[in-house]
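Hi C.,

You asked whether I'd gotten around to modeling the 448-residue construct. I have! Everything is below, sequence then structure, no commentary in between.
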Amino acid sequence: MEQSVPELMARLDSLESSLSMATTINSEVFYWWCTALMLAIHAGFLAYEMGASRAKNALASGMKNLIAFAFLIPAFYYVGWWIYLAFPTGFSIADGSAAGLPWSANMGPNLTDNASGIFYAAFTLFAATTASIMSGSVIERIRISGFTILALFLGAVVWVFGASWGWHPDGWLTTEWGLHDVGAAGCVHTIAGFFTLGVLINLGPRIGRFNADGSVNNIDGHNMPMSLIGLMLIVMGFFGFLGGCIIYTGDMWTTIYNTPATLSAFAFNTLMGVAGGMIGAYLVTRDPFWMMSGALIGVISSAPALDLYYPGFAFLVSFAGGCIMPKLNDILVGKFKIDDAVGAVAVHGFGGVWGLIASGIFASGYPNIAGPEISFVGQLSSAVVFMILGFVPGYALSFVLKMVGLLRVTDKAELAGLDKAEVPVSAYPESSVPAAFTNDPTSPTPAE
């Protein structure tokens, strides 16, 4: 039966509408599973921080991660998503920011909106990652209450300004300075790392970490295998994290800056970055903990130009990061007496800075659609903004918490173990862990 022209046009319109909806649904499903995969990051932080703690502090270290995760979900819903939409140009509220207010139709079960919820979910997991970065550095002496306040401020406010400024298509760091940071090395890792540095200065070292003459005592965790498994889970979760950094527009993949990208490029460079960082860190330390931390260093080092690097070059950039960051951690601990229990300031803070600087050197001249081309000055200047944005609030808020007695546990509680002081159950109820197994320099050596 022949069809009229209007009927044929109606069928074509219906087909185009169906194809458009299929594209939308496929995109929605993609980000749904990226978010699910990012949960592995938090399972990883949970395991590696508990393993990096002495037995008497294992559960308290884990509780911090669980509390930060649970509290940041509503905090990012009520505050964080609106901040991201509101401040890309600086401190003036942008048009369209009302879509991020908790009473907006976009922030509920709107059946015609296939984007707001999944992007909020992905950003919420990014926010929780910033808190987990800080969490490992401060183990074994911070109050859970003080940590929770710091985590909420970092995850729902501080890093979100960095994301709005530099990880938004209209962010001023991109439109004015040409920032290119597709894998969020700056707005997530650098900000979280330097926020942590500010907190550590006020928190102080663990009892027994430094001797009167300034020499350093190692305080090893009670379960290295648990830490290594946790770090590998974080690497696994990075594939969800980086997948969430790429946008499908219907006919092509782009970065957050609307520049062309593919998952294929991300796959090449993520794996090469992991390997480069692991090999570099292993060669300079021979330490399995730092070798697996090197995997994180590698991803962060190549993250800003993940869409641009040739895979062999991404390996070299990440290898350099893996070689440098453990040495910077040694300087931070040995010279400046900053007790970073897991090296997070070096891995995430300095690693993010290195990634931005490297991309400014080696990707200089590539175009950004929304602003100037990539340049060394633009990348370095943006790194400085992220460093300041992280450090100043971290130092200021932790100083206030210290003054009111909410930052650090008492010496008595620290010596007894935070599991006894702040958690109502024991990690190992059926065994007695000898002092020799706690690697506690303040504990007496058992008699032979």
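If it helps when you're writing up: Residues 25-426 form a domain with the Ammonium transporter fold fold (CATH 1.10.3430.10).

Thanks,
B.
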